[in-house]
Amino acid sequence: MSMLLPIFALLAAAQTAASPPSAPTPKPTAAQLAAAAPAAAWAAIDPKDLLLLDFADGQRSVIWLAAEFAPAHIANIRTIARSGWWGDATVYRVQDNYVTQWGDASEKKPPAAGIDRHPPAEYEWAWGAHGRAVANPYRDAYAPRTGFTPSGWAVAGDGKAQWLPHCYGMVGVARDLAPDTGTGGDLYTVIGHAPRHLDRNIALVGRVIDGMAALSALPRGNGGGLGLYEDAKMRVPIKRIVLAADLPPSERPAYQYLRPDTPVFAATLEARANRGGPFFTVPAGAADLCNLPVPVRKAPAPR
Amino acid sequence: MSMLLPIFALLAAAQTAASPPSAPTPKPTAAQLAAAAPAAAWAAIDPKDLLLLDFADGQRSVIWLAAEFAPAHIANIRTIARSGWWGDATVYRVQDNYVTQWGDASEKKPPAAGIDRHPPAEYEWAWGAHGRAVANPYRDAYAPRTGFTPSGWAVAGDGKAQWLPHCYGMVGVARDLAPDTGTGGDLYTVIGHAPRHLDRNIALVGRVIDGMAALSALPRGNGGGLGLYEDAKMRVPIKRIVLAADLPPSERPAYQYLRPDTPVFAATLEARANRGGPFFTVPAGAADLCNLPVPVRKAPAPR
């Protein structure tokens, strides 16, 4: 019964079905294009920029730190990770269609030693400050110009300033009311439709590139209209928060991103905006910036 | 320690803090505007258009059916609900940042008696077909025009055609490859950033207006690259799927939507695009269509 199959059948499934001999080759998907990209199109992510959240149940979330975008906050984050301050960190807030937040649920711990307690507002930069961005040809609801830096980050802007967008999986620094900027001790990630109104109002410091489900599939909280876990027993302990660079080399995970300044990256944009294959009838001819994540993968084992 | 407070403190919290007497009155939020709206700005949702998913653990998800947008599919859904066909329904697919899907995990059940096995592609309509839409003044990444029908639905379109957008919480009919349209026996809801590329490619039939967490906070599946639960034990049984109208009046939940053709609704749009209060430093001046959900509430108890 065809209608009882799950939606969004894989192209592969379609190709194994009996097709007329004249059936055109299905247009490759963005994932297929990325998988076929030459090794030179992939760039390594520095292990200093990989923050690992290890949960008691064995799950791991991997955050790619946007080092060049929020250097003061990320210096704090590295210091906090090395200090042991996160030894009793928990996930204490999960608000549906918004954010999951972790750090010090008590809100009472003194800040970790050696951090900048009042880092500057690392919210926006001059357009092009992080290298010449590859332009995104598709319209954005929030910013007149968007693109992708050579270093692998989507940026929104207006040709004068640029900033990181609050897309699904982006990680930011929890803060109190303006002009506080937060220290980095409490972080959140977006688990719903992109709350782009937060852009330029909070410091974004990275992106979850693996193990997102450990943060998104948690029970929602009910406290304070903010998704706080009112019952402390709901808090999810994080066994360890560590930089990949601080692990022995044999234990370090390694990741790569698809370089935006490559033809294959441009092809992935087009493939996402105009999806081919036997499922789609009407191509969108458009793609939201947050539906154009820069592809990331685990580094292939050396041969 | 101000930076240890959760982000996004409520306006209420800010107002209770010591403020200089000259502090300006904070701009009301969209939620505050809706809460203060006159009773006449709210319209009742027909109980025939409320589909209830009752889970074994007591959670309930409430789906508002978009009856005028997909009449053939929704006739099927009402027939299926009354037939008992969903008696063994489960959630069998949860794909992170995409969809949760439920229905017949076996993919082998014959369709429910009396349904249209091949409903038409209810994907788009003439612009204005559902009443004169209130224009959304903000730019959309996918469609040149967007708005809100008097009946409470966000629509995207181009001035000739209009269609429902795949926003967070929207419910669609799972189908196999085109031109199959699905029957309504298997449904999904969006649990991540809006996959608007699905617009006009699948029949949308409603919106989750309450109890979304029962569908979004589930463990993610790993099967087939589609989030299928490979282990059948992970499937989440749905104890009952029933129309509110088919319950005794005393057991019927009642909901209302804020009428888009009211001044207060227009004010909520502006309040979402340009957030005030002590948290936001830079107003977005924009709002994605999927960040502008038509407000819905439980009907107040009669006095």
TrEMBL record, chains A, B:
One protein family per Pfam: Pro_isomerase
Keyword list, A-Z: Isomerase, Signal
Domain PPIase cyclophilin-type: 62-225
Signal peptide as annotated in the record: 1-18
Domain of life: Bacteria
Record-level Gene Ontology MF annotations: peptidyl-prolyl cis-trans isomerase activity
Enzyme's top EC category: isomerase
Gene3D superfamilies given in the database record: Cyclophilin-like
UniProt-listed Enzyme Commission number(s): 5.2.1.8
Name of protein: Peptidylprolyl isomerase
